[in-house]
Amino acid sequence: MRCTRICSPISVGDWHTAGMDVSGVRQASAQDAAACIAIYRPYVENTAISWELEVPSVEEMAARITAARTTHEWLILEDDGQAIGFAYGHTLYRLPTYQWSAETGIYVDPDRHREGGGRKLYTRLLQRLTERGYRRAFAGITQPNEASNEFHRSFGFVNAGLYRRVEWKLDRWHDVAWLQLDLSGADDAEKAPGLIS
Ligand SMILES: CC(C)(COP(=O)(O)OP(=O)(O)OC[C@H]1O[C@@H](n2cnc3c(N)ncnc32)[C@H](O)[C@@H]1OP(=O)(O)O)[C@@H](O)C(=O)NCCC(=O)NCCS
């Protein structure tokens, strides 16, 4: 059965906006590992937002940055030469049929929230993933996290489902909501996807 309006893909958010200011955002390198850890550490140690129990080593973080840069993207937000946030994409599932779907993540220094930095980072990240040929972005958000829920919705992400009591951290279970965004527009429904570059 041909897809009709009722089963057409989710509409694209407003992150396509031409001329969106992404100043202060640059591509990461392995040398940014320590700065990323400094931003990431409080989320690992004090919250269930990160699903990790141990803060990664500099070597591990450098390897993650290099791997993400190779296949997806890893970006840094800087202010006055200092990293204050990062965002990345990586593989959602290691299956050939899922290769056009990326998982995204973002962490902004807790002292620099709500200054528009996250929007700059994600705008550029989603642009870059689209340029590389990815068709869908997915974000897994430990609940409750109204800032991240609203942040993702502001880009057009919509609810994809809820993993109930999937994460054990800080002495209790946590639900994880998944949100998703179509990157390439509603016209990709019946076209075979191209190669990821
Ligand atoms: C989610 C996060 C990345 C947002 O970054 P940020 O730099 O504070 O976001 P911005 O200032 O660019 O805000 C962009 C939009 O997101 C939404 N938003 C951000 N924080 C919000 C909050 N606390 N409450 C409601 N909406 C919020 C708003 O729509 C906002 O637009 P507006 O300011 O024009 O209303 C940041 O809160 C963060 O690092 N949180 C901890 C880590 C985390 O949860 N990461 C996501 C894991 S999936």
From TrEMBL:
Coiled coil: none annotated. InterPro entries: Acyl_CoA_acyltransferase, GNAT_dom. Keywords: Acyltransferase, Transferase. The keyword Membrane does not apply. The keyword Transferase applies. GO terms for molecular function: acyltransferase activity, transferring groups other than amino-acyl groups. Residues 23-182 form the N-acetyltransferase domain. This is L-amino acid N-acyltransferase YncA.
